[in-house]
From TrEMBL:
It holds the Pfam family Pribosyltran_N. GO terms for molecular function: ATP binding; magnesium ion binding; ribose phosphate diphosphokinase activity. This is Phosphoribosyl pyrophosphate synthetase associated protein 1. The lineage of its organism: Eukaryota, Metazoa, Chordata, Craniata, Vertebrata. Belongs to the ribose-phosphate pyrophosphokinase family.
Length: 383
């Protein structure tokens, strides 16, 4: 009958197969790959790493605009649909750390309210990572930042060489803490002549584990600098001191607790033979370089004829480029987790290692639901 024919035609038009074909018309802006990669900063220096990652992935950088209004408020405009997709936000931290954090938070929240399926933050250098311990009446700012990112909508985090691995416990969502050491070790093997005559140096006892990892992988010796040059991670000021140590009370004096003796650092010394060797100092962050300059001087005095510094994150704040240029340090090698093009112009001793490949592979594996264990092969608990 006529009615039956009409019903068949209606079912044919609105069948699931025909609806799927309609959604795949060339003119519609729907990603076949199912994910987008955005940069949380629109400046050229900060998007350089994001462009390298997208080139390796074979995708285009997502269309968005991030800018500061006249009253210094951060505004983010996402220029394409993200509904139902995995979104990766790449944020490299420039010198203005707090602005970069707000850009990341505002973009994550904008994507969350635009119905993105998953929002994965790619933050190679995690800011405030040194403020991960309680100091006097301070606060654990790193924990606060982790809570803010979760509230803004992040569901996963990709980072690299956290200052303390225990920071991963601050987050309520998965964290992949990648390692830059394979790239730095490769640089040592390929770019340092006669590296077999080198010795790995820890500039303080607290950095000995990281240095030991490098030494064992390169089959080299290990030296540790100990003494008054170590002061960046001092525990001397740790503690609440509340109530005050001394107070005048009338009546019962209370319990008399034993007084903790103050620490006194010994004269600076080097544990290990560096005479006639290439000294390679390894660390995770190089920011204020006074410790490194002092370490280079003592190593020169002990007979090291070349001094290299290897670090994942090259913040190089304040007068760091000038101090490096005037010091006994021969070369500083850092990765491109943090923009430092200006510092390289000020100091030709600074070299850069590209880590965009491992970040791109992490993005690909997370989107495809593949195991991340391949990126952590031969990584021990203490590495």
């Amino acid at each position: 009958s006529t009615v039956e024919l009409t019903n068949v035609s209606i079912v044919g038009i609105f069948s699931p197969f025909r609806m799927h074909e309609a959604c795949l018309k060339p003119g519609m802006n729907i990603s076949r790959s199912g994910y987008r990669v955005f940069a949380a900063n629109s400046s050229g220096v900060c998007t350089e790493l994001a462009k390298k990652i997208t080139e390796r992935l074979g995708v285009e950088l997502g269309k968005s605009v991030v800018y500061q209004e006249s009253n210094s408020e951060t505004r983010v405009d996402v220029k394409e649909s993200v509904r139902g997709q995995d979104i990766f936000i790449i944020q490299t931290i420039p010198r203005d750390v707090n602005t970069a954090i707000m850009e990341l938070l505002v973009m994550a929240y904008a994507l969350k309210t635009s119905c993105a399926k998953n929002i994965i933050g790619v933050i190679p250098y995690f800011p405030y990572s040194k403020q991960c311990k309680m100091r006097k009446r301070g606060s654990i700012v790193c924990k606060l930042l982790a809570s803010m990112l979760a509230k803004a909508g992040l569901t996963h985090l990709i980072t690299m060489d956290l200052h303390q691995k225990e920071i991963q416990g601050f987050f309520t969502f998965p964290v992949d803490n990648l390692r830059a050491s394979p790239y730095l070790i490769q640089y040592i093997q390929e770019e340092i002549p006669d590296y077999r005559n080198a010795i790995i140096v820890a500039k303080s006892p607290s950095a000995a584990k990281r240095a030991q990892s490098y030494a064992e992988r390169l089959r080299l010796g290990l030296a540790v600098i100990h003494g008054e040059a170590q002061h960046s991670e001092s525990d001397m000021a740790d503690g609440r001191q509340s109530p005050p140590l001394s107070r005048t009370t009338s009546g019962h004096p209370g319990l008399e607790l034993p007084l903790m003796m103050a620490k006194e650092k010994p004269p600076i010394s080097v544990v290990g033979d560096v005479g006639g060797r290439i000294a390679i100092i390894v660390d995770d962050i190089i920011d204020d370089v006074e410790d490194f300059v002092a370490a280079a001087e003592i190593l020169k005095e002990r007979g090291a004829y070349k001094i290299y510094i290897m670090a994942t994150h090259g913040l190089l704040s304040a007068e760091a480029p000038r101090l490096i240029e005037e010091s006994a340090i021969d070369e500083v090698v850092v990765t491109n987790t943090v923009p430092h093009e200006v510092q390289k112009l000020q100091c030709p001793k600074i070299r850069t290692v590209d880590v965009s490949m491992i970040l791109a592979e992490a993005i690909r594996r997370i989107h495809n639901g593949e195991s991340m264990s391949y990126l952590f092969r031969n990584i021990a608990v203490d590495d």
